[in-house]
Amino acid sequence: MMTVYNFAAGPATLPDEVIQQIQTELPSLQGSGMSILEISHRSAMFDEIINTAQQDLRDLMAIPDDYEVLFFQGGGTGQFAAVPLNLATTHHRIALLDSGHWAAKAGDEATKLGVTVDTLATTKGTHYDKLPALTMTLPADTYDYMHICTNNTIEGTAYHALPKTSGVPLVGDMSSNIMAQRYNVSDFDLIFAGVQKNLGPAGVTIVIVKKSLIKEVDHIPSVFDYSLFAKKNSMPNTPPVFNIYATGLTLKWLKSIGGIDEIERRNQKKASLLYDFLDHSKVFNNPVKPADRSLTNVPFMTGDAKLDDAAVADLTDHGLMNLKGHRSVGGLRASLYNAMPFEGVQALVNELYHFEKNL
Ligand code: PMP
Question: Which residue lies with its CA nearest to atom 10 of ligand 1?
């Protein structure tokens, strides 16, 4: 069978080892005679699974003790609502850096909830080809927090250095580069991320939040209530049992290969290979300012939609899957998340090279 590499933007490729372990353990978890698909979230077995996943997250990201690690459902989109519901309770006003589609969506969701959103900088005018620069000092006593999207999945930019918020809490949507590169958790007051790109199958959203920001808030749906989730070990109701289990396996895999420092080194190597090819190509182009380029999502195009489609079809024929770009950007997009092996990127670059040569 042809080797297949899946470059999807999420849900995305998982480590082979994790898929194999799931397959082995699926009929009977730890010799219990019951599948992970069947066990109660109130069982001792699941307690161990969720606690281990939390601890592995803490170890891998070096999360300080004054932060909670919580698991939600509802995805990144759920957190676009949960964050303002929990945090925008004093000024009812937040600051936003508009770096792309997902940053703007977060702002829209906060607006729906009656929160005032000040977009302090945007690069929309140049199709988000770089990150917006924050040139002002944030005023005191004005904002409940500032929202940024650390990696812009669609546009292919990422923050490698963080904006200065002058004491205003910083919220980072890390959905597409959590644990793909090292960030200092204490530079943020809250980080959230769906796991379905770098850490597991869709269905779990990680929230890492400074304990001092967690308040009891009236009129908040229980499924979004940080204070309730912190009190109930993320289980005030039934959690996504299988997805937390599978995320736990991926975290163990990440630990076994050397953690974030090692995966970041691998991700740099994979991304460099593709960017180098694109920068030398006479046909394909990556439109992003080099200093702001993402390690995990690489959009590229020829400038001719028919030729882009032909390239996608050719790559698909060679087992290089899901490379069609997001509809808002067009062209192609390669997502190079943690579980994408270097060989996959080599195969992609080789085939792009052949495609270009044969034109
Ligand atoms: N934020 C970012 C950066 C994303 O890439 C995505 C999904 N692609 C979302 C938020 C929305 O996540 P979800 O689909 O889990 O709601």
Answer: 76
Tokens at 99, concatenated:
């770096």
In the numeric block, which tokens belong to residue 27? 């009929």
- ipTM rounded to 2 decimals: 0.99
DSSP annotation string for 63-83:
--TTEEEEEESSHHHHHHHHH
Q: Would the CB of 67 count as within 6 Å of ligand 1?
A: no
Asked whether the beta carbons of 214 and 169 are under 8 A apart, the reply is no
Q: Decide if 173 is catalytic.
A: yes
Cβ of 139: how many Cβ atoms within 10 Å? 10
Say how far apart CA 15 and CA 53 lie, in whole Å: 17
Q: Does 3.90.1150.10 match the CATH number of domain 260-357?
A: yes
Q: How far apart are CA 317 and CA 329, in angstroms?
A: 23
Among the options 144, 173, 225, 308, which is catalytic? 173
- Rounded CA-CA distance 156/148 in Å is 14
The yes-or-no answer on residue 304 being catalytic is no
Q: What is the pLDDT of residues 13-59, one digit of tens each?
A: 999 999 999 999 999 999 999 999 999 999 999 999 999 999 999 99
DSSP helix/strand/coil, 339: coil
| Number of residues that this document lists for the chain | 359
Give the other-Cβ count within 10 Å of 293's Cβ: 19
Which of 71, 73, 77 gets mutated to test ligand 1 (max ligand atoms within 8 A of its CB)? 77
Q: State if residue 75 touches ligand 1 by the CB under 6 angstroms criterion.
A: yes
Which residues have CB under 8 Å from 74's CB, separation 6+?
81, 82, 205, 223, 224
CATH no. of 17-256: 3.40.640.10
The phi and psi torsions of 10 (rounded to 5 degrees) equal 135, 130
Cβ proximity of 288 and 155 under 8 Å: yes
What are the residues facing 147 on neighbouring strands?
A: 96, 171
Instruction: At 245, give phi and psi (nearest 5°).
Output: -60, -50
Does the Cβ of 13 fall within 6 Å of ligand 1?
Answer: no
User: Can you give the residue ranges of every domain in the chain?
Assistant: 17-256, 260-357
Determine whether 253 is an active site residue: no
pLDDT at res. 72: 98
